[in-house]
Amino acid sequence: MTGNATLPKLTLGKIQAEAPAENPQTPADSCNPSATTSIAKALRRGRTLLDGSSDSAALDAEVLLCFVLDKQRAYLRTWPERLLQPEQQRRYQKLLQQRRAGHPVAYLTGSREFWSREFIVTPDVLIPRPETELLIERALGLLPQGQKLQVLDLGTGSGAIAVTLAAERPQWRVTATDISAAALSIARSNARHHAAANIRFHRSRWFDDLPDARYDLIVSNPPYIAPDDEHLQQGDLRFEPQTALAADRNGIADIEEIINKARRQLHPGGRLLLEHGCDQQRAVQTLLQRCRYSEIHTHTDLAGLPRVSLARWPGISC
Ligand SMILES: C[S@@+](CC[C@H](N)C(=O)[O-])C[C@H]1O[C@@H](n2cnc3c(N)ncnc32)[C@H](O)[C@@H]1O
């Protein structure tokens, strides 16, 4: 699936305040002889259908029903007796079957929330993860707000990192890259949706095809899973692009290349901020030391796991 023409509608309405007071027994519902399933019943059926195939069966059923009804979750609790239209029932049933077959909820609804913004996602891009918000938190806390800083996001995927940084810091100039043209198309759409005009996009294999420029901050959430890791055959990961997930040499090859080449693209004193696996802290720190970065520090996520490493490039010759 590529290109804007095939993008699902980004249902931004779902993150807006719910319209109050709607009659649950509107004529459109109550007069329809085939509208026999209530919201409460649909949710029970959905949960039962997904039990055993999803660890979050109840939540998945709610999210999918909200998607079909174009409503927020509070609506389901407010109007449990409201009847579904036959078309809504059909769509809901189809989504439940797809979810039962393993398809990630975010690909079924076409969006995922990241740093309180909705991002369009398709199977061309990694589904943004909550762990990556740690990288955003660090990046925003690191550099002064008011300056025109140059920031590079390597492997932008949906644009979750680049668009968030650009939207949060309109003075920054963000460059977002990916090897995948399809991913860049999604990232561009997300930049438009969030009116982030301070981003440029480049298709590039890491630094290979980038214009010769220097940055104050380089961020990346690169692929870091070992190709033979059994998790790649489980859950949502089965449906996500393998190029977004797996890296050679036990998952460290892309991180190593970025650490090595970022030195030539950072201003003296510039920072490199990388997400990595929770078992890669030592390997990443060793690589940063070998490449003569300074002020190396690894940050832990809310679960206490080391997920993001930061280093400063002192500007020595390399
Ligand atoms: C783990 S995903 C991260 C996506 C997004 N930044 C996020 O955090 O949700 C890694 C991204 O790197 C891209 N990628 C993989 N290999 C690459 C390469 N050699 N050069 C540039 N991008 C690459 C993938 O297409 C994918 O979008």
Could you say what the CATH architecture of the largest domain is?
3-Layer(aba) Sandwich
| Strand content bin | 15-25%
Q: Which molecules are bound in this entry?
A: S-adenosylmethionine
Q: Any idea what the shape is?
A: elongated
- Kindly report how far apart the N and C termini lie: 42 Å
Description:
It is a single chain. This protein has helices at residues 27-30, 39-50, 57-69, 73-78, 86-100, 105-109, 132-142, 160-168, 181-193, 242-245, 248-251, 253-262, 281-290; strands at residues 111-114, 117-120, 150-154, 173-178, 199-203, 215-220, 266-275, 294-300, 306-312. It has 318 residues and is α/β, with parallel strands linked by helices. It has two domains: 32-102, Helicase, Ruva Protein, domain 3 (Orthogonal Bundle), CATH 1.10.8; 123-312, Vaccinia Virus protein VP39 (Rossmann fold), CATH 3.40.50.150. It has a seven-stranded mixed sheet, with helices on both faces. It has a two-stranded antiparallel sheet with strand order 1-2. The longest helix is centred in the first third of the chain and has 15 residues, at 86-100. The chain is elongated, with a radius of gyration of 22 Å. Residues 1-9 and 11-33 have low confidence and may be disordered.
